[in-house]
Design a protein that fits this description.
Helices cover 81% and strands 0% of the residues. The protein is mainly α. Helix 1 packs antiparallel against helix 3.
Length: 102
């Protein structure tokens, strides 16, 4: 971004792009976690005929799903919202610069 825009606009755009990439990466990590939980739950239920667990019970009792969700989904989504608001504040300024450079 520093080749296209001057500070502080380049920082705002770079931060927005990083936040977007972090959210996509977080979704990938959370998907991997979910698949591992599903496999572990299936394995558990296969060996415990009398005491089968539901997905929600297993997540709450046997994993740290809340922390993982916060780390990989909630925090990146919040960061993306903040960086998008910052981008919206400078968008008109960027559009003017782009029109002038044509």
């Amino acid at each position: 971004m520093e080749f296209l825009f001057d500070p502080p606009e380049n920082d705002v755009i770079a931060t927005f792009l990083r936040a977007y990439m972090d959210l996509l990466d977080g979704r990938r990590h959370y998907d991997i976690f979910s698949k591992n939980v599903t496999k572990a739950l299936d394995d558990y239920n296969q060996w415990h005929d009398k005491e089968k667990l539901t997905n929600d019970v297993y997540l709450n009792q046997c994993t740290n799903e809340k922390e993982i969700r916060k780390k990989y989904l909630e925090e990146p989504a919040s960061n993306l919202q903040i960086s998008f608001k910052n981008y919206l504040q400078i968008r008109q300024k960027l559009q003017k610069k782009l029109r002038c450079n044509r």
